Amino acid sequence: VQLTGLGDRYPSQLSGGQRQRVALARALAVEPEVLLLDEPFGALDAKVRKDLRAWLRRLHDEVHVTTVFVTHDQEEAMEVSDEVVVMNKGRIEQVGTPAEIYDNPATAFVMSFIGPVNILPSTSKIFQSSGFDAPHPQVFLRPQDVIFEKVANGATTPATVSRLVHLGWEIQVELTFDDGQVVMAHLTRDRFNDLELETKQRVYVKPKDAKSFPLSYSI
Q1: Are residues 55 and 80 in contact, defined by beta-carbon separation less than 8 angstroms?
Q2: What does the DSSP assignment read for 155-187?
Q3: Is the distance from CB of 183 to CB of 120 less than 8 angstroms?
Q4: How distant, in Å, are the alpha carbons of 145, 149, 212 from that of 196?
Q5: Any alpha helices (H) in 73-155, and if so which ranges?
Q6: Quick one: 35 exposed, middle or buried, by C-beta within 10 A (0-12, 13-18, 19+)?
Q7: How far is residue 206's CA from residue 149's CA, in Å, rounded to a whole number?
Q8: Separation in Å, CA 109 to CA 102, 215, 217
Q9: Of 125, 119, 159, nearest in space to 143 by CA
Q10: Per residue of the chain (219 residues), what is the pLDDT tens digit?
């Protein structure tokens, strides 16, 4: 468990991540048929959590113990799991692989819970201009599915860049439509540089993909 050379230390001399590795080693020492982990990394900082997630996944592949991992961190669930069970108020909303859960959410709750999403009315101009036919009043649009065009065409909607947030490998763009509606979009750094975006700039956007669900989920 990557704790070589620390055998003579007391618990108080170990970091939070190191203590969690000791706890997992103790749980695995009895060779359990099922390993139950209830938010094991909840009290740790983001970088330690990410390192331990990768380590736990590798460990799981080595020891081949069925593991039930409970977490409220969506990224954590997607990274470590072969199969994800999304629960809402004690009810199972969907069961599937991480790719199935993300790409084909069964309900509005699943789509809104797994990954960032814009929840818009079906009457929004961006859908009317693009010809997206929403069967229900709410439409769910992921930030990476907002497509930018340099010039207007019949399928785009004009918007103003109201804020830019640099997140390293991607750029978060806050767009404000003429009716005051705000939409978040994510761009790769290459695409951002190609568009040469600045705040207050006028842009033209359209949805690449969007999903609509019955009104069983309240915003």
Answers
A1: no
A2: T-EEEEEEEEEE-SSEEEEEEEETTS-EEEEEE
A3: yes
A4: 19, 12, 32
A5: 74-80, 98-103, 108-113, 125-130
A6: middle
A7: 8
A8: 12, 10, 6
A9: 119
A10: 778 888 899 989 998 888 888 888 888 888 899 999 998 887 777 887 888 888 888 888 888 889 999 998 888 899 999 999 999 999 999 999 999 999 999 999 999 999 899 999 988 888 888 888 878 888 999 999 999 988 888 889 999 999 999 998 899 999 999 889 999 999 999 999 999 999 999 999 999 989 998 865 444
Q: Which helix (H) or strand (E) holds 195?
A: helix 189-195
The encoded tokens of residue 63 equal 């020891």
With beta carbons less than 8 A apart as the criterion, state whether 172 and 185 touch: yes
Taking the CB of residue 11, how many other CB atoms lie within 10 A of it?
8
